[in-house]
Amino acid sequence: MEEARRAVSDPETRAVSRRRGRRLVASVLVAATAVTLVLRLPDAFRGFDDQAVKNAVGGAQGRLLATADSIDVDNDFVLAAVNTLPPTATYTLQLPPNADVAASSYGIGALTISALPGYMRFMLLPRRDVAPEKAEYVLCYACDTSPWDHKTSWLWKNDHAVVIGKVNGS
Amino acid sequence: VTGLLLLNLLFLLAGTGLLWGLRGWTAWTEPIELLGVAYLLGLAAVCVAATVVLSLGGGLSTGVVLVLTLGTAAAGVAIGAARRRPVPRTLGSWSISMSPAALAAAGLALLTAVLLAAFARAAYHAPVGAWDAWAFWLPKAKGIYYYGGLDEQLLRALPGGSYPLLVPALDAMDFRFIGSADSTLLGLQYWLMFAGFVFAVAGLLRRLVSPALVWLFLAVAAVLPEVDHRLLQLMADWPLDIFFAVAALALVLWLRTGESWLLGIYGVSLAATLATKREGQLLAVCLVVGALAAVALRRCRAAIPILAVALAAYVVNVPWRIWWTSRDLASDVPDKGIAHFTSDTSRIWPGLRLVLELLFNYHLWLIPVPLAIAAALLGLVSRTREVSILYLVTTALAIVGFAWVIWSDPSLPISTKPSLTPIPRAVGAIALLSIVLAPLLVQPLLSEEASTEPREVRSRTSAKWSRRRAAARRAEG
Question: Do A22 and B121 touch (CB under 8 A)?
Answer without folding.
Answer: no
